[in-house]
Write a structure and sequence with these properties.
mainly beta, five-stranded antiparallel β-sheet, globular
């Protein structure tokens, strides 16, 4: 999501003198959700997990980098009775869903033992500051007034700012950034999405711009040219290989793409977009289903967003709907079925998937929507919320930046640890939030 512009920091940091880990457990029938939080105080604007690192954008316009496995190792050493919970929760989420781990968790005593060390970690950690030792910090040489979005993709850092889109090359072996960011666009960039070798830049009334060949041997030093796709965009999402563009928070259009399979040893992805169709499918016709089935007019829609196969709708009067789609790649998708849920009663500002459900940012708090239930993650306004559903290591991880610092949050359904098949992980609520396996990046 695009970072919130912030000009004032009036909240005292005294109540966050020490980072802490908190656990919340809710048993909702078919899920047993655990939410574990760790807080890193500081004057930050955003935070992103990638390539095993936590990269934090500071208010001094620098990137501070922490190796998350080293953070977890320090926790395991200093709180041995909780080892190795920190590694699973904050560094290697992928280990939670291997066949071997699932087989171990089918033993009730083993599952209870793992649950116990997670809870021990939450009770034992009263000062996590020694675990976050700066491994590297680098200035970002930008004259931009505000950085609105940041995203890592295929080892490169992309920054959306009030004066354009930039990319910064990163040497991950040495944890160094190129001293000179390359400017890709000259217009205000609100939001960035990446995938399948493409970077999409949403630039409000200036339009949506996309660059192809953003990885591997096809990528040049300064990046590909950014071509204008359409005349207005506040954000985009992926629906399979296709791009969903939002002209505003409610209006969506689907741009079909052409793709081919690649076997380049340097690519993290097996399928690559080679072209974007010029004429989109307007998805607003799908909203007629809401009117016919639920009596909801299009004017009542406050916020719409999508996953790989589902469009989610939040209305001004607090109702929440999901529309599951199917259809051919070359045709407009159709609704296979829909479902209504009890809404959060809040205005949605952003939505991001994790393996356990949806992370929803509202005006005054951040929520987890899982199995039709709304669970509170942070009960205050925030600057940014990020999840990493298409990553390999961090599919459970959430970073939330506030005026006081960065929260690292792991949310997982304990019952899902019994399942090696990820398609079953959502219980009754299965929105196919995670991108196809072949798009997973080793992050």
């Amino acid at each position: 999501m695009a970072r919130r512009e912030s000009h004032f920091r009036q909240h005292a940091m005294a109540r966050y003198i020490y980072p802490s880990i908190i656990i919340v457990e809710q048993d909702r029938g078919c899920i047993k959700m655990k939410i574990i939080k760790m807080f890193l105080p500081g004057r930050f604007e955003d935070a992103h997990a990638y390539m095993g690192w936590l990269s934090v954008l500071t208010c001094d316009r620098s990137i501070r980098m922490y190796v998350l496995e080293e953070v977890a190792d320090r926790i395991n050493v200093m709180i041995p009775q909780s080892a190795p919970a920190a590694t699973f929760l904050f560094a290697r989420n992928d280990w939670l869903h291997t066949g071997q781990f699932s087989a171990l968790m089918k033993n009730p005593r083993t599952l209870q033992a793992f649950s116990n060390i997670v809870e021990t970690l939450s009770r034992s950690l009263d000062n996590a500051r020694p675990f976050f030792q700066e491994s590297a910090e680098h200035e970002i040489n930008l004259s931009s007034r505000v950085i609105l979005d940041m995203r890592y993709y295929n080892t490169r850092l992309y920054l959306g700012a009030d004066d354009g889109l930039y990319n910064v090359d990163v040497n991950w072996n040495e944890a160094t950034l190129s001293p000179t960011p390359h400017k890709r666009l000259e217009t205000r960039c609100l939001s960035i999405t990446t995938g399948y070798g493409v970077v999409n830049a949403s630039c409000a009334d200036e339009g949506l711009f996309s660059g192809l060949h953003e990885f591997g041997s096809d990528r040049n030093k300064n990046g590909s040219s950014m071509n204008k796709v359409t005349d207005k965009s506040v954000r985009t999402g992926w629906m399979g290989y296709n791009i969903v563009n939002y002209r505003d928070n409610a209006s969506a259009a689907l741009f079909n793409t052409k793709h081919e399979r690649r076997a380049d040893e340097y690519n993290h992805e097996k399928s690559v977009i080679t072209d974007i169709e010029k004429i989109p499918f307007n998805l607003n016709h799908l909203y007629s289903h809401l009117r016919e089935k639920y009596g909801i007019e299009e004017s009542a829609i406050q916020f719409a967003f999508n996953s790989s196969s589902v469009i989610f709708i939040n209305t001004f009067d607090g109702y929440f709907y999901s529309l599951r789609l199917n259809g051919q790649e070359s045709a407009s998708p159709r609704i296979s079925y829909s479902k209504s849920y009890k809404g959060s009663g809040n205005r949605i500002l952003s939505a991001s998937p994790i393996r356990a459900g949806l992370v929803i940012e509202t005006d005054d708090r951040v929520l987890l929507f899982a199995n039709g239930e709304w669970l509170t993650l942070i009960n205050s306004p925030v600057l940014s919320v990020r999840t990493f559903a298409s990553s390999k290591r961090f599919q459970h991880l959430i970073t939330i930046t506030t005026e006081e610092g960065v929260w690292l949050i792991n949310a997982f359904d304990e019952n899902s640890l019994l399942l090696s098949d990820g398609r079953k992980r959502f219980g009754k609520f299965t929105p196919d939030l995670v991108l196809p396996d072949e798009t997973l990046q080793v992050v």
